[in-house]
Design a protein that fits this description.
With 211 residues, this protein is an alpha/beta fold. It has helices spanning 40-55, 61-86, 122-125, 134-142, 164-174, 188-194, and strands spanning 10-18, 21-27, 32-39, 98-102, 127-130, 151-155, 178-182, 200-204.
Length: 211
Amino acid sequence: EIRSTLPPDSILLEYYQARGQYYVCIVTRESLDVIPLVAAAEVRAILRLLKFQLSKFRLGPTYLEAFGDRLRTATETHLRELYTVLIAPLRNRLQASHLIVVPHDILHGVPFHALFDGERFLIDDFTVSHAPSSSVYRLCRTKPPTSAVGALLMGVPDLRAPFIADEIEGVARVLPDTRVFLGSDATAEQLRLHSPESRIVHIAAHGLFLR
């Protein structure tokens, strides 16, 4: 049932952990394969180092001007390490243009589109989307089309994410019939009020993943 809902030229990658090791299910319209990958502890260690490097971007423009090249090199090193353990073992099987990634546990914190093989990022070769599970993905694909129109855009910029306002403005320029709420106007009440009548809901804000 899940395979039948996949669009042409798409592959679903569902990662999961069992007995301290990560595996990935490679799902296409024609097949399903399971590949063992790497110890979860190794992924956790790499991801911790990547988050440490990314946290340095908050240290301000003076720091970035002085250490930007080193910071980028270190960040790309960890992205390459994650690519090596999460993508490289299955790269030759990814004969498609679009990847649907279903993460698991700490992999929800992995920027899959930015994983780096040393020359190209994953997003250079594929369009990438995410789903919370393959079953939820199937339900979304089989849900009847909505009669709602327009788009609801909500953004909460702050010092740690100052370009959220630019993101919302950019999205508003390419979507027709938009309703925009920024900052203190972007409330849960507005979301509940307007989302049922919106075909697209775009939210740009900080978030927490509850495992």
